[in-house]
């Protein structure tokens, strides 16, 4: 991993996930710092990860080449305005993983600083995340490379060409784990209703989804081909898929992602979302 100094502002779930990923990727502890207002959380960072953690964000960002903003939306304004001077002097790359805050808003709070956005998801907590990245034209190729290096420590990264596309990323991969968990829940529930013991149904559903996901990770995996290989003409899988088509699963998935995308855009249209408005499982 890079030897650049990386600072995490906010050591909640996502902040801790990134710190853990950076350490696993080989970043030395002396190249990491964090700002966290909760004393117990700061103590845990020092005790469990061995990194420098400060209550004062000014101290944490000093000398950082990358500053990751990982706080809740309602906390971001005060935080960034408070360290705006320090950021202007040191000129780090600021990566926001804050849900629902556009770059224009972030730049208004810390003017004169390079700002870009990343949208990770909950599996980042175990290093298996998926992050959408967007960088405006002012971000240099070297900064893009650095951002990809940092975010790839918690999983896959994919760049999008327009900031508005991050709303779709939010709907697809940000909210996606919930769809996956719902599918596992429904499969297990149906299996139990059809006669399996509850524990057996849950175990089989979980293992099936895990194994199928791993097959998709193959470099030459093609989702359509994989589905066709499992679907024998006139067999049980074909009968199940036909039932799903009659129930318009395709349309339901499209409607779900459309609703999530629209909600993401609604949240972004306000300067700061309230705690009740945004889905923030990682903050």
- How many separate helices? 12
Total number of strands: 8
The domain count comes to 2
| Overall average residue pLDDT | 92
CATH fold-level label of the largest domain: Rossmann fold
Please tell me how large the radius of gyration is: 21 Å
The CATH homologous superfamily of the largest domain corresponds to NAD(P)-binding Rossmann-like Domain
Give the biggest sheet: 8 strands, mixed
* Helix-strand string: EHEHEHEHEHEEHEHHHHHH
Widest sheet: strand ordering: 3-2-1-4-5-6-7-8
Query: Could you list the spans in which at least 5 consecutive residues all have pLDDT below 50?
Result: 272-281
End-to-end span in angstroms? 24 Å
Strand content: 5-15%
Description:
The protein has 283 residues and is an alpha/beta fold. It has an 8-stranded mixed beta sheet, sandwiched between helices. It is elongated. The protein contains 12 helices and 8 strands. The longest helix has 21 residues, at 249-269. The chain has helices spanning 13-24, 39-49, 57-61, 73-90, 103-109, 141-151, 165-174, 176-193, 198-216, 223-230, 236-246, 249-269; strands at 6-9, 32-35, 52-54, 66-69, 93-96, 114-119, 129-134, 155-159. It has 2 domains: 6-163, NAD(P)-binding Rossmann-like Domain (Rossmann fold, 3-Layer(aba) Sandwich); 176-265, Orthogonal Bundle (ProC C-terminal domain-like fold), CATH 1.10.3730.10.
């Amino acid at each position: 991993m890079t030897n650049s100094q990386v600072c995490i502002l906010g050591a909640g779930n996502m902040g801790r996930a990134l710190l853990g990923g950076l350490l696993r990727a080989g970043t030395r502890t002396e190249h990491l710092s964090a700002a966290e207002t909760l004393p117990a959380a700061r103590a845990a960072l020092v005790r469990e990860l061995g990194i420098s953690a400060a209550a004062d964000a000014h101290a944490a960002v000093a000398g950082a080449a990358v500053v990751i903003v990982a706080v809740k939306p309602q906390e971001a304004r005060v935080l960034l305005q408070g360290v705006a001077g320090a950021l202007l002097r040191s000129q780090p790359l600021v990566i926001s993983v804050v849900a629902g805050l556009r770059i224009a808003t972030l730049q208004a709070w810390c003017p004169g600083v390079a700002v870009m956005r990343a949208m990770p998801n909950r599996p980042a907590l175990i290093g298996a995340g998926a992050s959408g990245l967007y960088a405006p034209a002012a971000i240099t190729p070297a900064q893009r490379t650095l951002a990809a290096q940092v975010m790839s420590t918690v999983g896959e990264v994919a760049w999008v060409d327009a900031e508005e596309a991050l709303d779709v990323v939010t709907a697809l991969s940000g909210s996606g784990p919930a769809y996956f968990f719902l599918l596992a829940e429904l499969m297990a529930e149906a299996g139990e209703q059809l006669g399996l013991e509850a524990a057996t149904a849950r175990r089989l559903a979980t293992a099936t989804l895990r194994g199928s996901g791993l097959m998709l990770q193959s470099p030459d995996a093609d989702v359509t081909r994989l589905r066709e290989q499992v679907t024998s003409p006139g067999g049980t899988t074909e009968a199940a898929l036909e039932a799903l088509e009659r129930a318009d699963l395709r349309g339901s998935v499209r409607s779900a992602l459309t609703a999530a995308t629209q909600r993401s855009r609604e949240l972004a249209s306000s300067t700061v979302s309230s705690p009740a408005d945004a889905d923030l499982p990682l903050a």
